[in-house]
TrEMBL record:
It comes from Cacopsylla melanoneura. PROSITE patterns: ZINC_FINGER_C2H2_1, ZINC_FINGER_C2H2_2. One of its GO terms (biological process) is regulation of gene expression. GO terms for molecular function: DNA binding; zinc ion binding. Keywords: DNA-binding, Metal-binding, Nucleus, Repeat, Zinc, Zinc-finger. The keyword Chaperone does not apply. It is found in: Nucleus. GO terms for cellular component: nucleus. This is Zinc finger protein 91. Pfam families: zf-C2H2 (PF00096), zf-C2H2_4 (PF13894). The keyword Zinc applies. InterPro entries: Zinc_finger (IPR050331), Znf_C2H2_sf (IPR036236), Znf_C2H2_type (IPR013087). Residues 10-38, 44-72, 73-101, 106-129 form the C2H2-type domain. Its main location: nucleus.
């Protein structure tokens, strides 16, 4: 059976690259990392979980995203937030496919930011300006 899912549940223990199949991780490690084992190439250890990383910046990213729950990748269309950029990219492909072809947008009356959907505008008002009931301005796109 052929799978068309974009989900990649398996991660390389050395570089954190994601894969659809566990076998692909094994092949990747053998080819890219010349068979190096996880513990041999990771001197930056997480104090919270057993993961270890090759650089301090990867450890900092891991701590920020996984243990502190900060979601720094924000969808510009609907303001949904994600821990990983790959998750944001997947969201945009799956949720906003063809968004560039929309003929209208919604504009925040407070700060002037434009949104492609009413949902994105409402989310922005609630979390940025603290007003979920604000009126929106619907404008025609100039594109």
């Amino acid at each position: 059976m052929i799978s068309h899912s974009t989900e990649k549940p398996y991660a390389c223990p050395i570089c954190q690259k994601r894969f659809k199949k566990k076998h692909d991780v094994t092949t990747h490690c053998r080819v890219v990392h010349q068979g190096k084992k996880y513990a041999q190439n990771t001197k930056y250890k997480c104090n919270i979980c057993p993961k270890a990383f090759t650089t301090s910046s990867k450890l900092n990213d891991h701590t920020t995203y996984v243990h502190e729950g900060q979601k720094s990748h924000i969808c510009e269309i609907c303001s949904a937030s994600y821990i990983w950029k790959t998750s944001l990219d997947q969201h945009i492909r799956m949720t906003h496919d063809g968004i560039r072809h929309y003929k209208k947008y919604f504009q925040c009356e407070v700060c002037g930011k434009d949104f492609k959907s009413r949902q994105g505008y409402s989310h922005h008002m609630k979390y940025v300006h603290g007003d979920a009931c604000a009126m929106f301005v619907e404008r025609k796109s100039i594109f």
